[in-house]
TrEMBL record:
Gene Ontology MF: a single term: Ser(Gly)-tRNA(Ala) hydrolase activity
Lineage: Bacteria, Bacillati, Bacillota, Bacilli, Lactobacillales
Name recorded for this polypeptide: D-aminoacyl-tRNA deacylase
UniProtKB keywords: Cytoplasm, Hydrolase, RNA-binding, tRNA-binding
Xref: HAMAP family: Deacylase_Dtd
Length: 145
């Protein structure tokens, strides 16, 4: 499982020029689910994200997690994070889990985030989306489990 975590001042998802979800201060998560991922891995990733300290305290140190800043999460499925580009010029996505299993794990991931006390907005799984954000910092971290 690979998740790109971006600290944002705001982020939104649009489909066909219509906004379907948005957040202000918080995290935009781009979520890639791999062929070997399990519910245990997904739960561990959600816990890691809930606790990761990427927000600044009063001294400018990254000591605060999403809860401590009353931030929200925008979670967007992105199978292209699992691209293999080692061979040739065309990415291969054979390492990405296929629907409906990937949809089930993506939904479980978001449920785990909510169960950890997070406010979670979502993109639309499998849709052609336009994702906009204002990255704060910038702060972008890639997490792999």
């Amino acid at each position: 499982m690979r998740v790109v975590v971006q600290r944002v001042l705001q982020a939104k998802v649009e489909i066909d020029q219509a906004e379907i979800s948005s957040i202000d201060k918080g995290m935009l998560l781009l979520v890639g689910i791999g062929m070997s991922d399990t519910r245990d891995i997904v739960k561990k990733m959600a816990t890691k994200i809930s606790k990761i300290r990427i927000f600044e305290d009063d001294c400018g140190k990254t000591n605060l997690n999403i809860h401590e800043v009353n931030g929200k999460i925008l979670s967007v499925s992105q199978f292209t994070l699992l691209a293999d580009t080692k061979k040739g010029n065309r990415p291969s996505f054979v390492n990405a889990m296929k629907p409906p299993m990937s949809l089930d794990l993506f939904n479980y991931f978001n449920e785990c985030l909510v169960n950890d006390g997070n406010v979670v907005e979502r993109g639309q799984f499998g849709a052609d989306m336009q994702v906009s954000l204002i990255n704060d910092g910038p702060m972008t971290i890639v997490l792999d489990l």
